[in-house]
Amino acid sequence: MVKKCLFPAAGYGTRFLPATKATPKEMLPVLTKPLIQYGVEEALEANIKTMAVITGRGKRAIEDHFDISYELEHQIKDTSKEHLLTEIRSLIEKCTFSYTRQVEMKGLGHAILTGETLIGNEPFAVILADDLCTNSNDNVLKQMIEIYEKYQCSIVAIEEIPKDETHKYGVIDGHLVDNTEDVYRVTNMVEKPDSKDAPSNMAIIGRYILTPDIFDILRETSPGKGGEIQITDALLEQAKAGKVIAYKFKGKRFDCGSVDGFVEATNYFYNKTKG
Ligand code: UTP
After folding, report:
1. Which partner from 169, 201, 235, 263 sits 20 to 30 angstroms from 253, CA to CA?
2. Would the pLDDT of 254 be above 80?
3. 15 close to ligand 1 (CB < 6 Angstrom)
4. Whole-number mean pLDDT of the chain?
5. What is the CATH number of the domain that holds 85?
6. 14 CA to centre of ligand 1 in angstroms
């Protein structure tokens, strides 16, 4: 059973400066909801109630968001605006949130390792809230948990991308398993390769299910691309033992860590509310 979800949210979000100078990137709203709330809702829908968040300096707004604001509640009680807090209040009631700080931003792999104290020795999900995913049926994390239950190893969500964008992603190589169209046993993975060196056009997006042995591997992982400790490098160790499945998810993903993706998501969700 996957019972916990880790949200690495300590990055600087430099692509959104100056907005992210004093506001966490994960708190930027698509319509009226911050990115991280979409992520928490996705986890809860996948039956995960324990949320573990990796924060850093300047990220306190995330903790405040998942807490009650008595003054605000008091102000809008019995007014026409009270319903605007219903969704977030329900999340707060149903989930528990714990936090730990990444003191030095040494990369996504290091952020995940920082989460070990919150996760312990069990398989766990990871959501990067700046990848906003949506699907009309089962959400992406729920789909991945089903895959995990079948294969019992680490799972990465993948998407086909234009070949000239491989330098933005971890890219996998693998072979289809079980006569499926969307499940691959990973044989290789490379972090942010130039298109000429990319093993395929299948890119890892911000959803993972990881087995807890990843922590020991991360402890031994040296800084890689960009001088950061990369989760892709640690996953490659598991992949060499045949223990990583890549799953081509059903649904849509918006790269809300980039301005273009953020605007696209905003338009998509806006049109959905109108349509
Ligand atoms: P990104 O590569 O998007 O980096 O991190 P970033 O700092 O958030 O944004 P830019 O590139 O400067 O605009 C991917 C995910 O990993 C987390 C980020 O918060 C984001 O969810 N992360 C990254 C950490 O938690 N710690 C790190 O040291 C690095």
Report:
1. 235
2. yes
3. yes
4. 96
5. 3.90.550.10
6. 9
Residue 16: phi, psi to the nearest 5? -110, 15
Q: 227 burial class (0-12, 13-18, 19+ CB within 10 angstroms)?
A: exposed
Domain hosting 259: range is 4-274
The answer to whether 175 touches 184, Cβ cutoff 8 Å, is yes
Ligand 1 atom closest to 15 (CA): 13
Pocket flag, ligand 1, residue 192 (CB < 6 Å): no
The reply to whether omega before 18 is within 30° of 0 (cis) is yes
Q: Identify whether the C-beta of residue 76 lies closer than 8 Å to the C-beta of residue 84.
A: yes
Six token digits for residue 184: 């691959």
Domain count, the chain: 1
Q: Which residues contact 65 (CB under 8 A, 6 or more apart)?
A: 27, 34, 36, 37, 88
pTM score over 0.70: yes
Q: Is 25 in the pocket of ligand 1 (CB under 6 A)?
A: yes
